[in-house]
Amino acid sequence: MDYRAICLSACDLAREAGAYIAEQRKSFTFADVEFKGAQNLVSYVDKQTEKMIVERLRELTPDAGFITEEGTVTAAVEGQPLKWIVDPLDGTTNFVHDFSPYCVSIALMDEDELTAGVIYEVTRDELFYAWRGSYAYLNGQRIRVSATDKLENALIAIGFSYAALNKTDGFVDSLVHFQNTTNGIRRVGSAAADLAYVACGRCDAFYHTGLSPWDVAAGVLIARQAGARITDYAGGDDYLFGRQIIACTPNIYEDFKQKVR
């Protein structure tokens, strides 16, 4: 299978979806918002973008299944080697408030391997992408993780589920620790953007709990092809469906993982 060609087709689709999102943002109001939960927002923009992406991906790979955030398509994935993992609008709350960043995220799995990943950050017109065996790219230029070699010099991207702040598992303590012992922490509100920013060296490490596969699939491949270490909190491989992820430049990975744990 030509993963490069598939990835580049997905890039075109992500830009098209991003153009639709940007156009809708011009007239979007809070009256268009629906609530999946108290702090879990969705709108017609998420749903229509997902339908658009799924329809086009079906033309590209008719036999593929889908794992999508908004559930606008019912497509069995059991027994299907090809699976698209789609988040049509990662960072919906940012979008609602006209606050950057927010992204289109599209990934392809073949069996259990991620083979193509595309993230389009709408507000900066930035297209991140990679496929199996490739480098990672931003708008056609190769990107790499940072060369930072000391955790104290790192900028840390963080993310958390809203429920995490009500737990006593040490997560809030970790925020205080990293704020006091590194260059600082940032929460941008889009896991796809976080992973893309690790990939291009804007931040040095990222950790998050409570994620779903559509939040991270594309970013995992892009960051990995840019040189990042990707694991769960225990250092294992259960980061796509296990709801815990660390992405880090290799030079500080071991130190960072121990601190997260």
TrEMBL record:
Group of enzyme by EC: hydrolase
Cofactor field: Mg(2+)
Catalytic activity: a myo-inositol phosphate + H2O = myo-inositol + phosphate
UniProt-listed CDD domains: IMPase
InterPro entries for this protein: IMPase (IPR033942), Inositol_monoP_metal-BS (IPR020583), Inositol_monophosphatase-like (IPR000760), Inositol_monophosphatase_CS (IPR020550)
Signal peptide feature range: none
EC id: 3.1.3.25
Family statement: Belongs to the inositol monophosphatase superfamily.
Name by which UniProt lists this protein: Inositol-1-monophosphatase
Species this protein is from: Alistipes hominis
